Amino acid sequence: MIYQGKQKIWADYQKEIPNDHWFYVRSCIRQNFFPASERYFLTICRDMLGRDIFETEHHTTCGGIAYHCDTIPQETAMTIVARQFALMTEAGYDNLVTSCITSFGNYTEILETWREFPELEEKIRESLWKACRREFKKPRYVAHASDLMYKLRGEIAERAKFLLVSRATGEPLRIVEHIGCHYAKMFPHKGVGGAEYPCVLSGMVESWGGQVIDYPERRHCCGYGFRQYHVKANRGYSLSNTHKKFESMEPFHPDMIITNCPGCPYFLDRWQYVIAEMNGKTYGQNGYGIPALTYEELAGLVLGVDPWDLGLQVHQVAVEPLLDKIGIPYNPARKYLGMDEKKIMTPGLPTVLKCC
Amino acid sequence: MVNRQPVIAIIGAGIAGLEAARQLVALGYKPVLVEKAPAVGGHVAEWNRLFPDMSPAADLLDPLVAQTSGIKTLLNTEISSINRLKDEYNLVLSDGSSLLCQAVLFSTGFHLFDASKKEEYGYGIYDRVITNRDLEQWFNTRHDDRIGHPKAVGFVHCVGSRDVKAGNTQCSKVCCITAIKQAIELTEEFPDAEVYCFYMDLRLFGKKYEDYYIRAQRDYGIHFIRGRVSEVGEAIDGRVVVKAEDTLSGKPVKVTLDLLVLMAGIVCNPDAQYYAREIGVSVDDDGFLKSRDNLGAITESSRPGVFFAGACTGAKTIPETLAEARSAALAIHRYFSNPR
Question: How many angstroms away from the CA of B217 is the closest CA of chain A?
């Protein structure tokens, strides 16, 4: 591996990310999958780092998931997106930051399509006006929330309570980074570091003391792939994709996985349970799995947020071995306490995958 | 009456420039070769053996260099600018001097496509990914730590050629046969190695090329897989994992290799494009210099006194390059022989 070669490519794929004043749009599914991630994005950016991030309860899905499932035409997705832009315009913002990778890809694709076909933009403006009497300005900058976290990685490092380092050995943790397919594979110049060797997550990992693992199936889909998972008959294909990735990363003995897509951490997390049940195989140490975290969760850990406040108890793969390795304190008794500090249900334990 | 005194500047002293210079001397002219490198010979000087007869490159180049040794040759000399005057051209050279000439011959050759631009193949990222040029240098020097004793080797054809995304839609013409030549040479060197060629389609148009391809399969057991490589990764032991599609069997292919050779395509020398624009010579859509006529006047530009030879107008084989150089010399001779 020639690290300087990657640095050269990274230098070619830098994007301008404004430092402040963002209009934030959430994901359709992330609050169900990893419920504290979006909240802690706002907490970190607003409360800890003093940035202005605005969100409105009036925004909706971007239509991306339906568009990629072929259940709505692109013009419909465009009109939905035009309404989001109208909300942003009405709120007085012109920088749009998305929580979801598919949304980021959807917004980017639509803006590029309008750039190529201005008549289509006019048609959508007309449709939006007819539908809800709204008008909009296009955003000056569109970023994914991981872009913004990448931009702020140095400030997070300055405030770090914990680094991604083994407490026992002092060695950097070995971390797999997994980028959502819709981040840069469609438009490499819209992603930090491009499509082949993105550095949006690896930049965070390195800034916070970890070491990124480059393994052969690094670019491969996590297995979600809308038409793989959402079509029930194709779910075996979804699982086989994830299995392929774990088989490929296994020899590198990663300590954890960091992701920036709604679906990726979910499938890389949950399918480990399914693979263990089907094949009797686990990929972490001592029968555990490899924790797959969102970048907000990882940033929260680095900043000293309590793991259970970050929602790490909803991961299928136990995070305790990772917390122990870094030396992050946690109270096992609080793991399944709700917001009101009352006990919520404790999940049953898998038969093969070791959990705490 | 023939003007035997004009100054003819030949830009580039590769085989096209040397052959044209040799022919011009034979016709009674005194050309001046301008070469930015410290030695003449161009790309061929870096090559070890040549297809299709595996003849040493030196066998071709050494006599040509010897026969042109008396010609005025400015080595280590770049051209800072070219100005077009009424019937002449003024070359401002990197040493500050000027060369006033009545004709200019572009024999500027080609550049190899920068294989690192095809990021998915990992050149410059993964240690065991090399280019056709790197391998040829290894044949010359036997010094390259990346090569070692490979047991499995892959060749990727059309790297940066016939590729819209790479900005080069043209066929580089010589890569197919070069890949076969190098695959055979590697197999001779490492008989226990499995060698794979990943190709879009094979363009074996030249004399003996098809025979060579058949021999590669029949006598050397080289595997030809029709399909493009999608991505390259690095295994934990440093070997490269190559994913491709076998379009004949309709299946994805994944192989782990000790060495991957990228057949970098041919693009126009950017210096030639710059010089051409300075004097109003057209550059074609493919990035190469534009001939006055692609059928009948390939060696002539649309500007009086400006001529072309070799790969400045497109990818060429060595015989084509030499033939064009001779043709260009005759075109220059006609130019000075006919009253204007």
Answer: 29
Specify the DSSP class assigned to residue A77. H
- In this structure, is residue B1 part of a structural domain? no
Test mutation, A215, A245, A247, A249, chain B, max B CBs within 10 A:
A215
The answer to whether residue B206 neighbours chain A at the CB level (below 8 Å) is no
Answer whether CATH 1.20.1050.140 is correct for domain A17-145. yes
**In chain B, which residues have their Cβ closer than 8 Å to the Cβ of A216?**
233-235, 241
Cα–Cα dist B55/B129, whole Å: 27
Nearest to B125 among A6, A215, A219 (CB): A6
Residues of chain B found within 8 Å of residue A8, distances taken between Cβ atoms: 116, 124
The CA dihedral of A6, A9, A15, A17, to the nearest 10 degrees, is 20
Q: Nearest CA to CA, how far is B244 from chain A (Å)?
A: 13
Q: What is the interface pTM, i.e. ipTM, of the complex?
A: 0.86
Q: What is the largest CA-CA distance in chain A?
A: 64
Rounded distance, CA A210 to CA A205, Å? 5
- The CATH code of the domain that includes B68 is 3.50.50.60
pLDDT digits (tens, 9 = 90+) for A176-235: 999 999 999 999 999 999 999 999 999 999 999 999 999 999 999 999 988 888 888 989
Give pTM, 2 decimals: 0.91
Residues in A touching B239 (Cβ below 8 Å): none
- Mark yes or no for CB contact B127/A1 under 8 Å: yes
CA distance to partner chain A, nearest, from residue B25 (Å): 47
The answer to whether A215 contacts B233, with C-beta atoms less than 8 Å apart, is: yes
Domain boundary among the residues B228, B243, B266 is at: B266
Stretches where chain B sits below pLDDT 70 are 1-4, 339-340
Chain A residue closest in CA terms to B120:
A196
Render the burial of A69-100: b for 16+ CB within 10 Å, e for the rest. eeebebeebbbbbbbbbbbbbeeebbbbbbbb
Residue B339 is predicted with a pLDDT of: 65
**B339 burial type by CB count under 10 A (0-12 exposed, 13-18 middle, 19+ buried):** exposed
Instruction: Say if residue B146 is in the same domain as residue B278.
Output: no
Contact between chains at A9 and B125 (C-beta distance less than 8 A)? yes
Binary contact (B125, A197; C-beta < 8 A)? yes
**Domain of B144?**
115-266
